[in-house]
């Protein structure tokens, strides 16, 4: 009896979650030096996680799932093969500059369209105040987390 696509998708995510926790647990054991672990075991667990994420992404066919899977693949590839990261530095710089060039006009146009779409100026003012408070709180939290991580 064939398994329904939704069930296979759920099985794929559970497999990826289990492998992610296994990789984290093995990494913590290695860091704590409680028990010497072979590097091949850690490498195999990381690549098994990548494989499970790829299977889940193929089954799910969602852009968000593919973005997450590719982020994990990129991190794993960068961790496993750091010597190639130097060769791709120009691609990284081009990508970051393109993002910086696109983000400001995108945010500005989104704000203009959002404000123009509201007919009640009082509601726009309240929304702006809420957005400003949210921005300040999130920025403060980001600064606290960043300073804590550095020190």
Describe this structure in words.
The longest helix is centred in the C-terminal third of the chain and has 30 residues, at 121-150. The chain has helices at residues 5-32, 39-60, 63-80, 82-87, 89-116, 121-150. The chain has two domains: 5-82; 86-150. With 151 residues, it is an all-alpha fold. Helix 1 (5-32) packs antiparallel against helix 2 (39-60). It is elongated.
Keywords, please?
2 domains; mainly alpha; 151 residues; elongated
Strand content: under 5%
Indicate the mean pLDDT.
80
| Beta strands, count | 0
Structural shape: elongated
| Poorly predicted segments | none
Helical coverage, percent range: over 70%
**Terminal residue distance:** 56 Å
- Helix-strand sequence: HHHHHH
> What characterizes the major β-sheet?
none
Radius of gyration: 22 Å
Number of domains: 2
Coarse structural class: mainly alpha
How many separate helices?
A: 6
